[in-house]
Amino acid sequence: MTVKGFMMGKPSSGPLLEGWKPYTMQAPVLTIVIVITLLLAGVIEFLAQKSQKQGGLALSECSDCLSDVVTFSYLYAPTVISVLYSLLWSWIDLDIRRIQPWLELSRPEGALAESSVLLDYPSTFLAFIPFTAWKKGHWPVFFSGIASMLLFWAITPLQSAIMGVKSVSFATNITVSSHLALPSPQDQAAMMDTTILHTAFGMAWLEQASPSYTTADYAIIPFSRADSPSHYLPGENLTAVTTMFTTELDCWEASVSTLPPARSYTFDNDRGCAVNVSFFQSTLVSNDSSLVAYIGYHGNAILDYCLESPQCSKNSSGQFLAIYTHFQRDDLGNPYDTDVKGVFCEPSYHKQSVSVTISAESGRPVADSVAPVGEKEPLGEGEFNATALQYLIGVGMPPPSPTRDWPASTTFEPWGSLAQANVVGPSMPMAGIAIGLSDNPPSDFRNATILKQAFTKAYKTIFTAAISQLLLDTEKTEHQPGTSHYTLNGVVVSRTISAVLEGMLIILVFLMGGVLYTSQKAKSKLAMDPATIGFTFKSVSTSRAVLNRFAMEDCSDGPTLQKSLSGEHFFLEKGDSGNSLEIEAVAGDHTKATDSRKDMKYTPVVPKELHSMTGCLLVSLLLAGAAVLIYFKKREESLQGLPRPSDNFEVLQLLENYIPTIFTTLLEPYLVLLTRVFCILQPFNDLRKGKSNPEHTLETKYTSLPPQLVLWRAIRSGHFLLTSLCIMALLVNVLTVALGGTFNEFPVQIQYPTTFNQVREARGSLTRDTLIYTKYQGVQAYYDHFYAASTNISRNTTLPPWITTHYTFLPVNLTSEHPVSSDFYRTKLRGFGAEAKCDAMSTSPTASRAFSNITDLLRGKSPRAPGPSFSFRRDNGTWTPCYPTTLLSGFDPVGKSAREVVSPLWPISYYDDHTYQPFEDHFCEDRFVVGWLRVDSKDPANTFKSSFVHCEAVLRTAMFDVEFDKAGHILGYNRSGEFEDTTKFMPLNMSQSLVRQATDLINNPSRPSQDYAWHNETFVADWWNYLLKFQLQSTDLVDPAKELPKPEAVAPAVADLYQRLFAIMLGKNLDLFPETVGQANVSGIVVVTETRIFLDDMAYLLSVVILCLIAAVLIWVYLAQSVAYLPRLPSTLGSVIAYAAASRAVREYGADVGLDGESWPRKALKTTYSFGRYLGVDGKFHIGIEMDPFVAPIDGTTLNRTSTVKSWFQKKDEKE
Question: For residue range 764-774, what is the model confidence (pLDDT) as tens digits?
Answer without folding.
Answer: 888 888 888 76
